[in-house]
Design goal:
By secondary structure, the chain is an alpha/beta fold. Helices cover 35% and strands 19% of the residues. A five-stranded parallel sheet has the order 4-3-2-5-19, with helices on both faces. It has a five-stranded parallel sheet with strand order 7-15-9-10-11. A three-stranded antiparallel sheet has the order 12-13-14, with no helix packed on it. The longest helix has 27 residues, at 430-456.
């Protein structure tokens, strides 16, 4: 076997800037934004609103752009989705708002809702304006939010508007969650995740405490004593195994969790210092698999092959994401599952795959195999819930591998403790996490007010 070919500085500095310093799509200017906005039919019962998990008034904000009222458009977006800027960058709009646009039926080309949303929010943040949101009267209640990702930030923002004091406890050094650590660098240029966090934290009702982790230096029981309610939004810390043959060492050198590598990439001050293999194999079929595949190519990998166990139509990555990967030189190979890893003390060198087929909707191996040469292998087959090593957390009821909550209130099995985001069963989308945080905030507000009425009664 050949020695693994893993190097830093595969590209020039200019190439790194080109590959990671520019938006995927050229930003709209005022003229092009108005032209695109005028394509909207401004439907009365707009299907794009129904398709948006956060209920943004899409025709409303687009109409404002068409009349050059960009600040008004941004406020319309942020009033429903405080992370509307990130969602404009990372949402699979092709299967949400743009997928529902009636223009698809007329000319097979929807209004560019995502680009218009990005234009409006970017212009708004560039002005460095205050939020301008009207707050309710202060209630005197305090809520702890554990996790500063999309669900936690959304919940904290809405609780603040409802008049409650909020303290966010974040395990990492920076707030933002997956927006800061987990989304591809080429999607979130110019430190945009921090821009949104700073915008939310300018609200005097919200305090952020970093390096605070449940089970390490934070106790859920103590939070219950100190606060009137708790919202858990700590995401998914575990990574799924590949499910290889027995005696296969999945922890072999250069077999890397995609989410961990993406986090390193997002925090790297010099992308040229990141080691990347000449031949990269990615195992998975979701957005994370696409993200790590494209980023590996943009870091200078010569060949990147993404392998998924089922067909392309069954991939959770959308057609648009798959198309982007292919445009970046990623080879997508379907109907194959990893069987074993081969290598030595220097690291992985080959991955053996078994061809698969669907029999009565069940995935089966065909008994036929092939081998891909690999200097690096990225695992991107999903994450799982790891409840913190905390006595009270361990009493929380789970279902389907996630925290079980009431579908309407997001209340867990522990009184006064709510949960949302990736740690709760739903689609693993940023916009869904934002929706959960917002709805949970209203449930927490109702819970606190009911408590107050009960004491006064």
């Amino acid at each position: 076997m050949n020695r693994p070919d893993i190097k830093t500085q595969r590209l020039t500095r200019a190439e790194y800037v080109q590959n990671f310093g520019c938006d995927i799509l050229a930003p709209l200017d005022m003229k092009t934004a108005r032209i695109e906005a005028q394509r909207c039919y401004f439907c009365h019962d707009a299907p794009c609103i129904t398709a948006c998990p956060t209920d943004i008034d899409v025709p409303g904000f687009i109409r404002k752009i068409s009349t050059s009222n960009v600040t008004g458009a941004a406020r319309t977006i942020l009033s429903e989705n405080i992370l509307g800027g990130t969602c404009a960058r990372v949402c699979p709009v092709e299967s949400l708002c743009e997928g529902a646009c009636v223009r698809n039926h007329a000319e097979d080309k929807p209004v560019a809702i995502g680009q218009l949303q990005k234009f409006a929010t970017d212009q708004f943040f560039a002005l460095k304006e205050k939020t301008g949101f009207i707050k309710a009267t202060q209630t005197g209640k305090k809520v702890a939010v554990v996790g500063a990702g999309p669900a936690g930030l959304s919940c904290a923002h809405r609780l603040s508007l409802l008049g409650h004091k909020v303290v966010i406890f974040e395990a990492k050094a920076k707030a933002g969650g997956l927006n800061e650590y987990g989304i591809a660098a080429y999607k979130m240029v110019d430190d945009f995740a921090k821009t949104e966090v700073d915008f939310i934290l300018q609200d005097g009702n919200i305090e952020l405490k970093t390096d605070q982790q449940l089970g390490r230096n934070l106790s859920l029981r103590n939070l219950q004593i100190e606060f009137d309610a708790v919202f858990l939004a700590f995401g998914l810390a575990g990574v799924n195994d590949l499910g290889l043959k027995e005696n296969t060492n999945e922890s072999m050198k250069n077999v890397v969790n995609a989410v961990d590598y993406i986090a390193l990439l997002r925090q790297a001050k010099d992308l040229g210092e990141l080691p990347v293999g000449r031949r990269v194999v990615v195992i998975g079929g979701g957005s994370t698999a696409i993200d790590i595949a494209i980023q590996s190519k943009r870091l200078g990998a010569e060949t990147v092959t993404l392998v998924y166990r089922r067909g392309e139509d069954q991939m959770s990555a959308t057609w648009k994401e798959r198309e982007l990967a292919q445009k970046n030189g990623v080879l997508i190979k379907t109907w194959a599952k990893p069987s074993s890893l081969r290598g030595d003390e220097a690291g992985v060198q080959e991955v053996e795959f078994e061809y698969t087929a669907s029999e009565k909707d069940k995935l089966v191996g065909t008994g036929e195999y092939f081998v891909l040469q690999a200097d690096m292998v990225f695992k991107a087959i999903g994450q799982n819930l790891l409840l913190p090593q905390d006595a009270t957390c361990e009493t929380i009821e789970t279902a389907k591998g996630k925290i079980k909550v009431d579908e309407k209130s997001y209340h867990t099995s522990v009184p006064g403790v709510f949960a949302g985001g990736d740690c709760v069963f739903d689609k693993d989308l940023t916009v869904v996490a934002v929706r959960q945080g917002k709805k949970a905030a209203h449930s927490i507000d109702a819970f606190l007010r009911e408590q107050k009425r009960g004491k006064n009664g």
